């Protein structure tokens, strides 16, 4: 829920830093109250903090009113909404992996290190087997 809330706030406001500033004190304090024995290093607190940060970055990356999105489309000289549409599949893929292999297992008590390894393996597999090479890209070996 924290990931979804952070993503929504960041998408709506266009700022990841503002989202982090708003949601971190609220959600981390709540997570400490939910698990007083775990403390700041407890699994619930770590998962909540990670969800705030990841959701804020996700929402900011997808937001058409984000300063980074506007500036990157202007710097490249491409249509702004086209830039937003082309970034969506990448951001959504990482968000799904983040929630499915990070947040949900953390709630179930899986070690954060195992979640991190599962996420790296999943994203590497997605890039390797689903990704397509850029036909305009010239590798350094082709230049030789």
TrEMBL record:
Chief location: membrane
Residues annotated as transmembrane: 90-108
Compartment annotation: Cell membrane
Keywords for the protein's UniProt record, in alphabetical order: Cell membrane, Membrane, Transmembrane, Transmembrane helix
Cellular component annotations (GO), alphabetically ordered: plasma membrane
Domain Na+/H+ antiporter NhaC-like C-terminal, chain residue ranges per copy: 2-100
Top-level taxonomic group: Bacteria
Membrane topology: Multi-pass membrane protein
Protein name as catalogued: Na+/H+ antiporter NhaC-like protein
